[in-house]
Amino acid sequence: VTTFAIVAGVVGANLPLKVIVALGIANVLADGFSMAAGNYSGTKAELDDMRRLREVEERHIREAPDGERAELREILAQKGLSGEVLTAAVDAISQKREVWIDMMLVEEYGLSPNDPHPMRAAIATFTAFLLAGLVPLLPYLVGADQPFRWSIAMTALTFMAVGALKSRWSLAPWWRSAGETLLIGGAAAMIAYVVGTFFRV
Description:
Blueprint: H1 2-12, H2 17-63, H3 65-78, H4 83-94, H5 97-109, H6 118-133, H7 138-141, H8 147-166, H9 174-197
Helix pairs in contact: 1-2, 1-8, 1-9, 2-3, 2-5, 2-6, 3-4, 8-9
């Protein structure tokens, strides 16, 4: 969205093509790095908090095992276990320290049993932003005829593809999700284009 908005704004201002390429690439790299760094920082904070809570649970189990066993029993009872089955489950889980801690983290704090990977999240974010962000610039980079029209078409298809893919995680049909994403991206580009015309050279 931001890269295409820059393209539209520069075209609206009737600036040279090299300005589109320079600003577009700068935006893709800077925004991609910024978003990747933000994702890394957020994921690392989440990982640090998980490690802190794991230490808390380890200390509770070490210092007050009976109380933690009672909590574990209550958790399993709420899942429908009772009688000898409940007692056997409590005994089995409490004999495996890591499994016990993992269950307490999931059930008591709502955390995932799998640790997040900050660097992997950052690389994925930067790569995705780079690949999608370069789409509006490709016609200018390859020297296509009427590059702005090609940029509009390619970006619109990308918006729709992303929106359709997004529908896999929502209740909306793919065409509605694709249309919403196209509308949002198109509105941002239109705003940038109109503002650019105010500074037309």
